[in-house]
Each structure stands twice: as structure tokens, then as C-alpha cells.
Structure to design on (261 residues):
């Protein structure tokens, strides 16, 4: 009754005696913890979805309300505007579902050998085709375990972030060690302040007005990059180059190392 009144905050007292009642109480508390996490994940997903989908829906509604009308009363809509917003919503839904799966421990990564240098090389070629400034790269052979598509998504999220914030160039470099592989994504911009290097991976986190929705960013790219990297047994961290420029690094275990294997 107390647990019901507090909305599941309280837990059953576990007796000191190591008997069946203590086991039952521990099992009950474990179940309540899992239910609480599931409820929090559901609430977070609903909040994220309603928060982020409001903007493209508002754009579509405004466009339809202000579109010129023909004699029959039908609105003449701009297919490019509508298409862009629909694509944006589709991308947001995919991102939110990825995060929801991660929250619910439902994100699975196949244990496949991946040539990470091929993933990096493909992304560098894409960058050079769209970047207005120079894109430097240093690629070395390296194999990791996981999903090439998901690893490409991690890298693309970081390079898109670098393109939005750079003042000149972008650089993608690889480093290897006996047990791991690092991919550094650098750009000619100020590094993330040290006190915000963890909070930038929070969903919809904004450091300042200059970083708010510039270039169409959804505020989910960095959180998703970290979630996917950790699902591969690695991580994504915010840091800086030896020269003091902005850097985000993907850290991954080599094939044969880490929880995937």
C-alpha cells in the first residue's frame, strides 16, 4: 500500500534473516526497479517525441494556412517545403526509436567483422563532396566487431556536428593500439568547455543560443552517437586537439576485445 501511495518510489524492507521472505523481498524490489526504469523510459520517449516533433508539424501547419488558394479553394503547397519537413520528421522518429530501444535494452548489435577504415573512408568522401572548406583525413587499417551501418551512423553524426560548427576545416583521423581503435573528428572551432563535456550528450542539450538548431540539428546526434558506440563496447567523448581545437573521439575495442566477443 505504501508503494502504491508513493507511485512506486518506496521499496520492500528486506529482512536480515536470509530466508525465503528475504529472497521474496529482494525479488520484489528488483521487479519494482525494472518497472520504474521502464516507466521512466516510456515517459522520456513521449516527452522527447512531443518536444521535437512540434517544430516540423508547426512549420507544415503554417505553410498550409498561408499557402495561396486556387479558384476551387485548394491550397497550392510547396512540395520542397513539405518534403523537407516530412523527411525531417521521419529522421526524428528513427532517432527517437533508436534511443527508446537503448533505454529499454532492446538495441542489439550483430557480431560481424567490420573494416572500420572502409567506414571512415566512405564518410570522408561524403564530407569532401559537401563541405565548403578542406577536409583532412588520416586512415589506417583496423577491424572491429559490430554493425558497419551503425558505426557509420556514429561517425556521420559527429562529422555533421563538426560541419555545423567549424570555422574553416574538418579533420578525421584514426589511431590504433594493441586493444583499441580511436577515430577523432576535429574541426576549426573552440572546444566544448570542460564543464559541459558530459552534458553535451544529453538529449536536446543546448550550450548556448549559437548552438540551437543551427543547420537543422535535432539535438539528438551526439546522444545517439554515444548510445551506439557504447552498444559496441566503446564510447564517444568530447575533448580537444593538442592545438586546442574542438574534438570528438570514437573509442572502440579491436575485434576480439570487449563485450561483443
Amino acid at each position: 500500500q505504501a508503494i502504491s501511495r508513493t507511485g512506486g518510489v518506496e521499496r520492500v524492507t528486506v529482512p536480515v534473516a536470509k530466508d525465503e521472505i528475504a529472497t521474496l523481498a529482494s525479488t520484489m524490489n528488483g521487479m519494482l526497479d525494472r518497472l520504474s526504469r521502464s516507466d521512466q523510459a516510456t515517459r522520456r520517449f513521449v516527452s522527447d517525441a512531443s518536444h521535437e516533433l512540434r517544430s516540423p508539424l508547426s512549420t507544415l501547419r503554417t505553410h498550409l494556412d498561408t499557402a495561396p488558394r486556387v479558384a476551387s479553394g485548394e491550397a497550392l503547397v510547396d512540395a520542397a517545403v513539405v518534403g523537407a519537413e516530412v523527411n525531417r520528421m521521419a529522421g526524428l522518429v528513427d532517432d527517437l526509436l533508436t534511443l527508446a530501444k537503448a533505454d529499454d535494452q532492446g538495441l542489439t548489435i550483430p557480431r560481424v567483422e567490420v573494416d572500420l577504415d572502409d567506414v571512415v573512408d566512405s564518410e570522408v568522401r561524403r564530407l569532401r563532396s559537401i563541405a565548403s572548406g578542406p577536409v583532412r583525413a588520416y586512415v589506417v587499417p583496423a577491424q572491429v566487431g559490430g554493425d558497419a551501418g551503425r558505426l557509420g551512423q556514429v561517425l556521420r553524426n559527429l562529422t555533421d556536428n563538426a560541419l555545423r560548427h567549424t570555422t574553416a576545416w574538418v579533420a578525421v583521423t584514426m589511431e590504433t593500439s594493441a586493444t583499441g581503435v580511436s577515430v577523432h573528428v576535429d574541426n576549426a572551432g573552440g572546444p566544448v568547455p570542460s564543464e559541459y563535456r558530459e552534458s553535451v550528450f544529453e538529449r536536446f542539450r543546448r550550450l548556448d543560443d549559437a548552438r540551437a538548431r543551427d543547420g537543422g540539428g535535432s539535438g539528438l546526434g551526439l546522444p545517439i552517437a554515444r548510445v551506439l558506440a557504447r552498444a559496441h563496447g566503446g564510447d564517444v567523448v568530447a575533448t580537444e586537439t593538442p592545438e586546442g581545437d574542438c574534438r570528438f573521439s570514437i573509442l572502440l575495442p579491436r575485434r576480439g576485445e570487449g563485450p561483443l566477443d
In short: The helical segments are 2-5, 20-66, 79-103, 116-130, 148-165, 221-231. The longest strand covers residues 180-187. The radius of gyration is 23 Å.
